[in-house]
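Changelog-linked ticket: nicotinamide-adenine-dinucleotide example.
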Amino acid sequence: ISISELSSEQAQKELSQLANLLKSLDHAYYNQDEPLVEDATYDKLRQRYNKIELLFPQFRQKDSISQKVGIKPTGGLQKCKHLIPMLSLDNVFDIREFEDFIKRIQRYLDLKPDELDNLHFVAEPKIDGLSINLTYKHGKLIQASTRGDGTTGEDVTENVKTLRNLPLTLPENYPDTIEIRGEVYISKQDFFNLNKEQEKNNKRLFANPRNAAAGSLRQLDPEITRSRPLSLFVYAQGYSDKSIADTHEHFLERLQQWGFTVNPLFKVVKNAREAEEFQQSIIHQRSGLPYDIDGVVYKINSVTLQNRLGFIGRSPRWATAWKFPAEQAITRIKKIEIQV
Ligand code: NAD
């Protein structure tokens, strides 16, 4: 039934059902690393939830999932708080929506049309892994944690130390405390090999590289993580007691100087047309890349403008993920208990 045809009563009931369903799906995906449905199906359910909520704001729950990031972590790993929250990203799906994203920024910053020329973006492939927060104090890695519900994650410090391309110390000129954020992922080939190995040992197969990476990182025994071929790309700053770059591009360069791996395909684009060109070029390269991506993230390059724009709800105003069209997929929903 189309959303505009829903009666109040139906809308209220469906919102409550969808909230329960999405919570179950989140638990399976984030806490058990075992998704029950394809991402495209999950995204459609979430979009429907958000649209109903927008049309019937009177039924919006105080702790609505539309404002939430991930889910509260459960399980045996220690919990730890991020110094500043780890958020999600808004999505766009075509150039029109990308232009709307630019217009919202223009309005918020009250920019004149000619000032728009200075609004540059850094485009980065959106890696399909799980986000990680790395805290360095006096140049030493002291803690690594998963995103969790954005405020509290799981402590995976010992596990990340087994990653090959992670610097445990920063070489020079670092703030006293800094959070570096990125994505832990597993390559397509390593995922294939890992599942072959799992099959040989009669162990459960992972649904996709993202879940294999999450399942491998969130182990209680770091030795198991060590045996898994995990890699890392870094792309963001959380808390820092000192500014380390004036633009996102310079920030990425600094991370490279410190020995981190930054995705080599990142590029500065100056407008929606250049973003679309970049989008097309990444879509062409996608199947040949050794890792999974599900879109391109566009971030305002100027750190001053990022700070002026700040955040809204669960996402920064200064960035968006331009997602790829969903690949055709067959969906199988395992048994899901819905309590209404
Ligand atoms: P998201 O994954 O769409 O976007 C935010 C995330 O992108 C960030 O947290 C970060 O980890 C990641 N990212 C990758 N590359 C990045 C880069 N270069 N710069 C910045 N961030 C980058 O949104 P979300 O809220 O984290 O999660 C929703 C995703 O999880 C959707 O794709 C959804 O389909 C999936 N999901 C699926 C199920 C399921 O049952 N199949 C359940 C829950 C969530």
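Closing comment: Example verified and attached. Residues 25-26, 29, 35-37, 39, 42-43, 69, 88-89, 124, 126-127, 131, 147, 183, 235-236, 297, 321 surround nicotinamide-adenine-dinucleotide (CB under 6 Å). The longest strand covers residues 230-240.
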